[in-house]
Specification:
There is one protein chain. The chain has one domain: Aldolase class I (TIM Barrel). It has 17 helices and ten strands. Strands 3-10-9-8-7-6-5-4 form an eight-stranded parallel beta sheet. A two-stranded antiparallel sheet has the order 1-2. The longest helix has 23 residues.
Length: 380
């Protein structure tokens, strides 16, 4: 583990350890993947101006977000089929982030049930909701989350259809192996992942195949994706979810300032500025680029979360300087568990992100997260 210093290091090791179709599913984006590169480039191009003669020998990374205290403004973004990265990934991430005082957002399409994640994560367990064609299933899932003790719901609104994932099409991900001989070879050349997955069983969408609804058995993933394609998703949908969910509601997938204003007016507790990690539309704007406009639209005190393109603790600092209150990451967690195994990987990425954020705050002259203000942004 001595050679692992950054998320980029974790990604390189994950690429070596995973079969090509699996790595491409995790790493890839929509269309020609311009948006994936744009997300990361937006952070790389953001420049900060340190302040001098400030008292910051001791840094405090903790924040209070939506009424819950967290040890750092960092969490796990919802990711479907997380156990594809390595068996046991979902639960290892929940345990590690809960112990570190960070939130874990379980996807509707996650590999663990909401009951199990709530048991492990306590008040730091969030649940993400997709809206399938049958609204009754959404009601069932929200009720299960409520019964399990989840008090923060993330309602994703930017995925009414799957993205056009060219890497998946080329690699044969999710297709019969006999149609893609190169995929068979890749699985054979990565016996660590293949044998571990064979022993643990193929990852499933646990919330949809265990007491949760209408999607059972090995084809649950395909059935569910079919159900959200062309599902009705409009402003009435948001009102329905808001009326049914009595606790904290975060709306994820917002890139338009006008949409953000309407979501605030509809009663959401927070907005997540996100382009789905660039996995939906190849030409979409980066989350960081639109963050200042959305901050201006919702006002200075409304809670904003950002995800998409975050690859370091320094990126977390940049997002907060640009207007976010909290930051979620997706791919870095999966790179880590694939690279080092679930437990070691989860611990390592937390160590990296916290260390980088702490160092960035020290370099900028900030002792607390609220001191990461917009006046640190270089405007030249």
């Amino acid at each position: 583990m001595t050679a692992i210093h950054t998320v980029a290091d974790l990604r390189l090791r994950a690429r070596r350890r995973l079969p090509r179709p699996v790595f491409d599913f995790i790493d890839g984006g929509g269309g020609e993947e311009y948006s994936v590169g744009r997300n990361e480039a937006a952070f790389a191009e953001t420049k900060l101006v340190p302040r001098l003669f400030t008292e910051c020998r001791k840094r405090d990374l903790s924040v209070n977000f939506l009424g819950t205290n967290y040890a750092a403004p960092i969490g796990v973004s919802p990711m479907g089929l997380g156990n594809l990265a390595w068996p046991g990934t979902d639960e290892a991430l929940v345990r590690a982030t809960a112990a570190a005082g960070m939130p874990y957002a379980l996807s509707t399409a996650g590999s663990s049930t909401v009951e199990r994640v709530a048991e492990l994560g306590g008040d730091r367990a969030w649940f993400q909701l997709y809206l399938p064609q049958e609204f009754e299933l959404s009601k069932k899932l929200m009720q299960r989350a409520d019964d399990a003790g989840v008090r923060t719901l993330v309602f994703t609104v930017d995925a009414s259809q799957p993205g056009r994932r060219l890497r998946d099409r080329r690699s044969g991900f999710g297709r019969p192996l006999w149609e893609y001989p190169h995929a068979v070879l890749s699985y054979a050349l990565h016996p660590g992942w293949s044998l571990s997955t064979l022993a643990a069983g193929t990852p499933t969408m646990a919330n949809l195949s265990s007491g949760g609804g209408d999607f059972e058995g090995a084809n649950a993933a395909l059935q569910f994706m079919g159900s959200i394609m062309n599902a009705k998703l409009d402003w009435d949908s948001l009102e329905q979810v808001r009326a049914l969910w009595p606790y904290k509601l975060i709306v994820k997938g917002v890139l338009s300032p006008e949409d953000a204003r309407r979501i605030v007016a509809a009663g959401a507790d927070a907005v997540m500025v996100s382009n789905h990690g660039g996995r939906q539309l190849g030409s979409v704007v980066s989350s960081l680029d639109v963050l200042p406009a959305i901050r201006a639209a919702v006002g200075p005190s409304y809670p904003l979360v950002l995800d998409s393109g975050v690859r370091s603790g320094e990126d977390v600092a940049k997002a907060i300087v640009m207007g976010a209150n909290f930051v979620l990451l997706g791919r870095p967690w999966l790179y880590a568990t694939a690279a080092l195994g679930p437990e070691a990987g989860a611990a390592k990425v937390i160590e990296i992100l916290r260390g980088e954020l702490d160092n960035a705050m020290s370099q900028l002259g900030c002792a607390t997260i609220p001191e990461l203000t917009n006046d640190l942004l270089w405007r030249g």
